[in-house]
Amino acid sequence: DNAAFTSFPGALGGHNWQPMAYSPKTGLVYIPAQDLPFRYEETDYYKYRPGLWNLGVDLAGGAPPEDKAQFAAVRALLKGRLVAWDPVTQKEVWRHEYTGPWNGGVLATAGNLVFQGDLAGKFHAFTADKGRELWNYEIGMSVMGSPITYKVAGQQYVAVVSGYGGAYALAGSFTDNPRPQPNGRIMVFKLGGKTKLAPVQMGEYAPANPAHDTFTADQIAAGRRIYENQCFACHGPGAVSSGVLPDLRRSGALPDKELWNKIVYGGLLKGNGMVSFAKVYTADEIEAVRGYVSQRAEVLQKQEDSKP
Q1: pTM value > 0.85
Q2: Which helix (H) or strand (E) holds 271?
Q3: What residue spans of the chain are helical by DSSP H?
Q4: Could you read off the pLDDT of 143-202 as tens digits, one per residue?
Q5: Partners of 71 in the β-ladder
Q6: Count of alpha carbons within 13 Å of 89, Cβ hemisphere only?
Q7: For residue 259, is it left (φ>0), alpha (ψ between -120 and 50) or beta?
């Protein structure tokens, strides 16, 4: 049976790498939980290819919906929460819901506190026993790291790394306001601290930059299959970047076939992590990917032109 099905949670799990915490005082485990769907479908044309991401599933339909209502409906399926779990009774004691998944690791302290940052850019403190939110701080960028606490000269501090990145950030295009992401910060807090946080400087995207070449429907379809099964993992489904890496729909290399080939085929930017794909794709296949990304850039350009 090759029927497709959607799994909740999906491939990123109900809990990923973000550390959990345990409090000996409450006996509870604090879990940064999430629920993201993932669509599975067995394909007849899959074959193993060395050097590529061999998932055995077809992700060619992974571009986010262009319709605003459909986009909002899919976005609403992406959930995240902090769950306090009793490992003895195997029951949830309390939870705090967030606006999305991939929130930070958790710290539990002896003072009946639990700390966690979220993807929206806030750092929270809850009571460990009841889950009542006591305090939060607007950092201005995502918090995915795990907090730590330490003492210096009798003063206790809580520190956490902020910044956006990782698997979900790279491969997820369901960002409410995608923009180039700033470098991360280390945030340190103490009781009575009065230092003011310098504003976070957010970048702005360049406009859509489609190629002026003509691509056939077959080229675009072939490029879509390659892109959505390989390139999306870094540059985002549908070529929609979340802001961690360049948005290819806006790239200066997109209209320039020679430059595109030097980068994707020749490895011009291998020092930046963009290695050559010459061993796994032909020049024609790489040109097909350019055709698909250009088609996505045309869609973006129409959206930008229609804005008031």
Answers
A1: yes
A2: none
A3: 68-75, 166-171, 217-226, 232-235, 257-264, 283-306
A4: 989 999 999 999 999 999 999 888 888 877 666 667 788 888 899 999 988 888 888 888
A5: none
A6: 8
A7: alpha
